[in-house]
Amino acid sequence: SQTIHQWPATLVQPVGSPLSLECTVEGTSNPNLYWYRQAAGRGLQLLFYSVGIGQISSEVPQNLSASRPQDRQFILSSKKLLLSDSGFYLCAWRPLAGGDHEQFFGPGTRLTVL
Amino acid sequence: LAKTTQPISMDSYEGQEVNITCSHNNIATNDYITWYQQFPSQGPRFIIQGYKTKVTNEVASLFIPADRKSSTLSLPRVSLSDTAVYYCLVEGSNNDMRFGAGTRLTVKP
């Protein structure tokens, strides 16, 4: 069966510090991968998605970036965090893109920028 | 890309049927409608998906009228454990997706 992992589970970082969040998927090959952010009490905002190694599409311009160095690894990074980067970051995967394919979400990373 | 609109919150009591409606007036021909459930500090979980008419699974039903400009998630006989946020998603091909802002459902005893 397929599983998705995210770490760390929680993170407290000072403004201006770098960020690296990691997401890995097991039990599948060539998944579509997604990074979402959820601000406190808000809905889901799609940040990046990837359909393959090294292929990244950005949905919202910001100081975040994403990379996919391996087939089942998706990394969210920032060189300098802003207060507004605080939130709940979710990684998701699915075998194929398209509205008729459900997404499987990870447990999330709670990021607090102070 | 269809914008999705849903009620911010709803209250219900145990044992009642709950219907949450999502409006998506500009839905495209290739778009599907999916509903997710999210508990605090967890990732969303798939509930149900449909394209038109009615879809039913073991936990919910999804009603989509002929014009597909709205959809209604129906939860039969809710319990306290159904207290969560419910998201409507309209999505076509190539990862063009838009989540609604979510409906916070509170089930009371």
Please tell me about this protein's structure.
The complex is a heterodimer of chains A (114) and B (109). With 114 residues, chain A is mostly beta strands. Chain A is 0% helix and 56% strand. In chain A, the strands form two sheets. In chain A, strands 2, 4, 5, 6, 9, 10 and 11 form a seven-stranded mixed β-sheet that branches. In chain A, a hairpin with a 2-residue loop joins strand 7 and strand 8 (73-78). The N and C termini of chain A lie far apart (38 Å). Chain B is mostly beta strands and 109 residues long. Chain B has one domain (9-108): Immunoglobulin-like. In chain B, a hairpin with a 5-residue loop joins strand 6 (61-64) and strand 7 (70-75). The chains are: A mainly beta (114), B mainly beta (109). Chains A and B meet through strand 5, strand 9 and strand 10 of A and strand 3, strand 4 and strand 8 of B.
CATH architectural grouping of chain B: Sandwich
Mean pLDDT of chain A: 93
State the fourth-level CATH superfamily of chain A: Immunoglobulins
Order of helices and strands of chain B: EEEEEEEEEE
Give the fraction of residues assigned to helices of chain A: under 10%
Give me the CATH fold name of chain B: Immunoglobulin-like
Query: Under CATH, the topology of chain A is which?
Result: Immunoglobulin-like
* CATH class category of chain B: Mainly Beta
Q: What string, H for helix and E for strand, traces the elements of chain A in order?
A: EEEEEEEEEEE
The residue fraction in helices of chain B comes out at: under 10%
* Mean pLDDT across residues of chain B: 94
The domain count of chain B comes to 1
Given as residue ranges, the uncertain stretches of chain A (5+ residues, pLDDT < 50) are none
Category by helix and strand content of chain B = mainly beta
The share of residues in extended strands of chain B comes to: over 45%
- Strand residue percentage of chain A: over 45%
How many extended strands of chain A? 11
Shape field of chain B: globular
**Care to count the β-strands of chain B?**
10
Global structural class of chain A: mainly beta
Gross morphology of chain A: globular
